[in-house]
């Protein structure tokens, strides 16, 4: 039994609220019971739906995979292109794909910018103009600004150097064949991190060793200074004591020098030529 897509379309507020939390999930749920024309209508909706930029879960649904070899294979091919491809690939394979509405075209162009951003963080205008099949730089810049406001990419337009500088880009669907390459890339990144960690540990150990050496050297210098101070203090005390002893001796010698010589007493009245008998 086909799901009631018309009811879902009329409730736009509920659709926007649900899409804000998990935009692809609603279409996956609908695809479980969709058959034939309902699947085709579902693909049209998901290709135009704002905020839906990954389609791998929907492609994996059995009802959608059935379209791959049937008369409506172009719908499956288009959904597959939105999951993994670019706008340039659409232009080169239009015979196997469905015509795009303006909303579909803009979304595929946004996804193309994401694919380019994954390869390089600075994308020249010339490359963007060619990949997006845009002839006017102003139109290109407007498209990029729309992608930024749609939170598809984060970055800025470098009009002086005519390039887009990307700081962030959403993730796209991954093919099964790309998993090994991704795992290899992650392993290389992990190995690089391990190497950097080992280098950091070596530097930390070396720094700690140097720190301990400096601490011991500082302690030795401080101990030597303390010993010198103690020695100087001891020498100062001994010098003061020696000076005090010398001072006492000098004072004693001075007293001896100040003693007056003893004079013999003579009796008054003794004139010359007179002698005193004992």
From TrEMBL:
Listed Pfam families: CSN7_HB_subdom, CSN7a_helixI, PCI
Superkingdom as given in the UniProt entry: Eukaryota
Presence of the UniProt keyword Ligase in the record: no
Main location group: cytoplasm
InterPro entries: COPS7/eIF3m, CSN7_helixI, PCI_dom
Chain residue ranges for the region called Disordered: 241-278
GO cellular component terms, A-Z: COP9 signalosome; cytoplasm
Keyword Nucleus listed: yes
Keywords of the record: Cytoplasm, Nucleus, Signalosome
Family note: Belongs to the CSN7/EIF3M family. CSN7 subfamily.
Source organism of this protein record: Anopheles minimus
Domain PCI: 1-171
Biological process terms in GO annotation: COP9 signalosome assembly
Protein name per its UniProtKB record: PCI domain-containing protein
Intracellular or extracellular location(s): Cytoplasm; Nucleus
